[in-house]
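Lab notebook, bench 4. Still working through the backlog of constructs that have no structural model yet. Next entry is a single chain of 157 residues. Request: give me the structure tokens for it.
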Amino acid sequence: MAKKDDPRKIVANNKKARHDYVIEDVFEAGLVLSGTEVKALRMGRASLTDGYANIDRGEAWLENVHIPAYFQGTWNNHAPRRRRKLLLHREEILRLESKSREKGHTLIPLSLYFLDGRAKVEIALARGKKEYDKRQTLREQQDMREAQRAMRQKELR
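Model written out:
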């Protein structure tokens, strides 16, 4: 999560991503947005739950991310689930394209935030987890919490 000295202003997090996927690599990308989208994001309104990224003709795109319409916008308000271009270096796009074509790999957004006044998205190259992997992860987290509780109880005595 964001620390006190972290300059990022987080707008949205994809909490289910780390539960449903094994994160292999993380990239930070800029976003091409319209004015009303930026205003809606500054109000803290966005949802990354169904979002994904893909590479099309050498360009990276963020799809199915919901940024609701700006309520003070006019007739030129944006479409909430439109396709948005990601700003990445050419080498990063080529690396993501080759890795995402491998079986079982996908590109998912982890968080959406502002850094120095610019909208950024953190995308991850991820591999989907099976149901038993998800249960195993939950079991490990629960065991870790119980161990920490036991250590705290021991320190208090």
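Notes after review: The beta strands are 9-13, 21-31, 52-56, 59-63, 84-87, 105-115, 118-128. Helices lie at 17-20, 35-42, 90-100, 131-156. Flag for follow-up if needed.
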